[in-house]
From TrEMBL:
NAD(+) binds at residues 185-192, 277. Belongs to the class-I pyridine nucleotide-disulfide oxidoreductase family. This is Dihydrolipoyl dehydrogenase. InterPro entries: Class-I_Pyr_Nuc-Dis_Oxidored (IPR050151), FAD/NAD-bd_sf (IPR036188), FAD/NAD-binding_dom (IPR023753), FAD/NAD-linked_Rdtase_dimer_sf (IPR016156), Pyr_nuc-diS_OxRdtase (IPR001100), Pyr_nucl-diS_OxRdtase_dimer (IPR004099). One of its GO terms (cellular component) is oxoglutarate dehydrogenase complex.
Length: 466
């Protein structure tokens, strides 16, 4: 039976970063992956959706007719779009495979990496089985990182048939642009997919928002900004609407929506896509064989990245990424994986500080977020002030003829106000978010922002004016 220093279960950003960091410490590592190398970080997730977003944004630029240019006969081929997206995913997967091969057991004298394809299940705290297509293998290790990620949540009473009623995992299997599409769920995935399909202008996009605004966890002004942009891009948003049922007919789906106001609406679409959150992949891991119970949300509780068993750390089994119940982001998964490997190697590490966590949301225009928003600060009863500045006043935005955007900086209510959070919407909003994350991390006051030179003309100049 093969024995390793570390077995990583799952090859997404959490698992792969844990493995790569563990390699630095000379460990003999095996990565076990049941589906796609790179997990949702690559396939049916972050990279594929962002590739499709970029293509759709290019198409939207090419389709403009208000800038003095006009393309002759613009058309888009869905098959080619999907091929390009899969190409991008494969490019990344082959980079990862090359890294694995570079450090294969046969070649590497110190640390080594191997990849086993199959589904892992704990037999006891030091043993797993890996079930592949044709065989089951038993492996042992001194340490484990569970990085099995998450999968799309099922909508109650709605069967996903993976052809017409689909989730984000099925997007790349579509054969053509749907003429009409309903997206159920107006969180990040729902709004990003609505942006992509409305950019291509081949699909009538309906977005079901069970609340009265999209992105329910964001501040009202930010949600309204996103809502308005989606509508301006042609998306039909059904606010305060609830899905009663979908009736399947050979050539269409009949959707019945019930609104909070009491009225109902029947609409016809070709594809319905469910995007109502993601649930952790714990159920097939054999957690009971290691004395671990998943939380009510199906996640694994951790302390210092160690899995908790009966309130105690099992200090040779770690968990990282979406499975851990923290914010489901690539960067968080990658960070947690790296720190788990450092714990395993007993290397002095630093605690993960989520206060300057940042994220980009790929809408039109993009939305960037770092730190807390007003809603969270009100919940935590933290006194704060808000500075707001419109891109309408920024020369670069004017030059781009693209002034739909803003920056909103949230600071503490102190004499020297510290930056607590920021939201920015507009072109290139992603470009300056990391500098704000640094300022939050360093506990800097707003004054620091004003001491910096800003290149002109740049969208970052928006800071100087807040
Ligand atoms: C459509 C979409 C778009 C996204 N866009 C972004 C984005 O733009 N930015 C961002 O920060 N985040 C984005 N995310 C979220 C991000 O992809 C996840 O937070 C991240 O991939 C989580 O990493 P992970 O390693 O924890 O899990 P995953 O990436 O889910 O990887 C887990 C892996 O474990 C494997 N696995 C599960 N169970 C087993 C088992 N028993 N045995 C063996 N293997 C197993 C799975 O097959 C999978 O490959 C997006 C997600 C989706 C779905
Ligand atoms: N750019 C990014 O950073 C990015 C992109 C995509 C996904 N992600 C990550 O993936 C996670 C999952 O994305 P998501 O959009 O699926 O989840 P989400 O939590 O962002 O949003 C889920 C949405 O579905 C709604 N909802 C829940 N149950 C519902 C029901 N029964 N009927 C109708 N609506 C319902 C919620 O009100 C919410 O609006 C995100 O939380 C995010 O962390 C990040």
């Amino acid at each position: 039976m093969k024995e390793y220093d570390l077995i990583v279960i799952g090859s997404g950003p959490a698992g792969f970063s844990a493995a790569m960091r563990a390699l630095d410490f000379g460990l003999k590592i095996c990565i076990v992956e049941g589906a796609h190398l790179g997990g949702a970080g690559i396939m049916n997730g972050a990279l594929t959706s962002k590739t499709m977003y970029e293509l759709s944004m290019d198409y939207a630029v090419a389709a403009r007719t208000d800038r003095g240019y006009r393309s002759g006969s613009l058309s888009v081929d869905f098959e080619m779009v999907i091929k390009t997206v899969i190409h991008a995913a494969k490019e990344k997967q082959y980079q990862m495979l090359s890294q694995i091969e570079t450090f294969s057991e046969e070649k590497s004298s110190s640390g080594s990496l191997c990849l086993k394809k199959g589904w892992a299940k704990f037999v006891d705290p030091y043993t797993i089985t890996v079930t592949g297509h044709d065989a089951t293998e038993t492996l042992k290790a001194k340490n484990f990182v569970i990085a099995t990620g998450a999968k799309p949540r099922k909508a109650p009473g709605l069967e996903i048939d993976h052809e017409r009623i689909i989730n984000s995992d099925d997007l790349l299997s579509l054969k053509k642009f749907p003429e009409r599409m309903l997206i159920i769920g107006s969180g990040i995935i729902g709004c990003e997919i609505a942006t992509i399909f409305s950019n291509f202008k081949q699909t009538e996009v309906h977005l079901l928002d069970r609340a009265n605004r999209v992105l329910p966890y964001e501040d009202d002004d930010v949600s309204q900004f996103v809502s308005k942009n989606l509508e301006d891009n042609g998306v039909i948003i059904h606010h305060t609407a609830h899905l009663r049922t979908i009736n399947k007919y050979p050539d269409h789906l009949e959707v019945i929506l019930d609104y909070d106001a009491g009225n109902s609406k029947v609409i016809e679409v070709d594809v319905a896509l469910v995007a109502i959150g993601r649930v952790a992949n714990t159920e097939k891991l054999g957690l009971s064989n290691i004395g671990v119970q998943a939380t009510e949300r199906g996640t694994i509780e951790i302390a210092d990245h160690c899995v908790l068993r009966d309130g105690n750390n099992i200090c040779h089994i770690y968990a990282a990424g979406d499975i851990s119940g923290h914010t489901q982001l690539y960067s968080v998964a990658e960070f947690q994986g790296r720190l788990a490997a450092e714990q395993i190697a007993d290397t002095p590490s630093y605690p993960l500080d989520y206060s300057h966590m940042s994220t980009l949301m790929f809408f039109k225009p993009e939305l960037a977020s770092v730190g807390l928003n007003e809603k969270q600060l009100r919940e935590k009863k933290i006194a704060h002030k808000v500075a707001y500045y419109s891109n309408k006043l920024v020369n670069r935005a004017i030059a781009m003829r693209s002034t739909n955007g803003f920056i909103k900086i949230i600071v503490s209510n102190e004499e020297q106000p510290r930056i607590l959070g920021m939201r920015a919407g507009g072109p290139q909003a992603s470009a300056y978010i990391v500098s704000v994350a640094h300022l939050i991390n360093q506990g800097n006051s707003l004054q620091e922002v004003l001491k910096i030179f800003y290149p002109h003309p740049s969208l970052a100049e928006v800071f100087r004016n807040v």
